[in-house]
Specification:
eight-stranded parallel sheet; alpha/beta; Rossmann fold; disordered N terminus; 11 strands; three-stranded antiparallel sheet
Length: 368
């Protein structure tokens, strides 16, 4: 089990990273996590029968069926950005869609859709995390002075870390976690100089539960499986009987920023993470992007990097896509960018290249 660290001023914390990694969906895809474009088709198809059988699945799919159109044979589906954007419009305007879908039910359907995304990712992902495990082995072998900004909701990265560091290894989420203060103190006493690895989850995490009353986060590190048939409260298909705030008894909600053009990045927790990410990027030697294409809905991340990158910093992009748009998305940030057309797994298989990037020896050359 990985033990999270909740304060930046902690023994083992590095000042000035050699490398800041930025992980997009392509990084987790290497360990089986579905791409964003594949999630809604999986929810709406019969491939995962428990979705159709469950109340939460029936409620969410019925809403999508009544408000969107698609063609299974042509594999034309609405995007998650479109569905969440539609839901977020009514939520942000505090409007009802109609008598069948009042605002409260729309909010519940949004949380239900988030839960279905959690279910799809947990079912489809390879929990052994072989690619991420190889990543952590390389970090331990060559240079642990790194930080990670990941835009993925899944916990494959942290789970792989726990297998490599079963003892004095800490994940620093850069946020306060209400249920780990005591555990952290015990771990500090046992390991005077634990190794802290900073993982900044810019879109939240499927194992973070947020209380809207006391505004604190509960970490559920073992919550990698979702039971779609558990008891729910009333009409709410997204509610869970498992997690209630121990301080004020309010029901927790999964803390993720879903793929919508109306992203609430002003959220107290997310804002804190993004501020920390800016500090890390500004002080590091190089930034390495893995499997990230800068989708249109992520304009806030383009702004973050545009503000944070300095002229002399080295930017490396690991991506095996043939899209020319990807190249210009990065060139819009900085001219000092190198492209390496490799998948994440193939990159990690090239130990000479990995060592060169992590240690700064030699000169990385673009093969793009």
């Amino acid at each position: 089990m990985y033990i999270p660290k909740t304060s930046s001023n902690y023994p083992g914390h590095f000042i000035g990273r050699d490398v800041v990694f930025v992980f997009g969906a392509g990084a987790s895809y290497a360990d089986g996590a579905p791409l964003q474009a594949d999630i809604l088709p999986l929810i709406m198809s019969d491939e995962l029968p428990d979705i159709r059988k469950s109340k939460i699945g029936q409620t969410v799919t019925e809403f999508i069926a009544e408000n969107f159109a698609w063609d299974v044979n042509a594999r034309i589906y609405p995007t998650l950005e479109t569905v969440f954007g539609f839901l977020d419009y009514f939520i942000s305007q505090d409007e009802h869609l109609n008598a069948q879908y009042p605002n409260a039910r729309i909010r519940a359907i949004k949380e239900g859709l988030i839960k279905l995304i959690h279910y799809v990712i947990s079912v489809k992902s390879n929990q052994q995390g072989k690619t991420y495990r190889s990543f952590w082995e390389a970090v331990c072998r060559y240079n642990p002075n790194i930080a990670i900004l990941t835009l993925n909701y899944d916990t494959l990265l942290e789970d792989a870390f726990s297998n490599i560091h079963p003892g004095p290894g800490y994940v620093d989420y850069c946020i306060h976690l209400m249920n780990y203060d005591l555990t952290e103190k015990k771990q500090m006493h046992r390991y005077p100089k634990p190794e802290a690895v900073k993982i900044m989850k810019g879109h939240g995490s499927l194992n973070w539960k947020y209380c809207h009353c006391c505004k604190q986060v509960l970490l559920t590190p073992r919550d990698t499986k979702i039971d779609l048939f558990e008891e729910h409260n009333g009409e709410d298909p997204g509610s869970s009987a498992k997690y209630y705030c121990p301080i004020d008894a309010s029901e927790f909600e999964t803390l993720i920023i879903p793929p919508s053009h109306i992203k609430k990045i002003s959220h107290l927790v997310i804002s804190q993470i993004l501020s920390e990410a800016m500090r890390e990027i500004r002080s590091c030697k190089k930034v390495l992007f893995v499997g990230y294409s800068f989708p249109d809905a992520d304009v806030h991340f383009k702004a973050l990097f545009k503000k944070s990158l300095s002229r002399g910093q080295q930017v490396i992009v690991i991506n095996n896509t043939k899209s020319k748009t990807l190249k210009y998305n990065y060139l819009a940030l900085t001219s000092n960018v190198q492209f390496i057309k490799l998948s994440f797994a193939d990159f990690l298989g090239n130990q000479c290249l990995v060592k060169e990037i992590l240690t700064g020896t030699g000169s990385t050359r673009s093969n793009g």
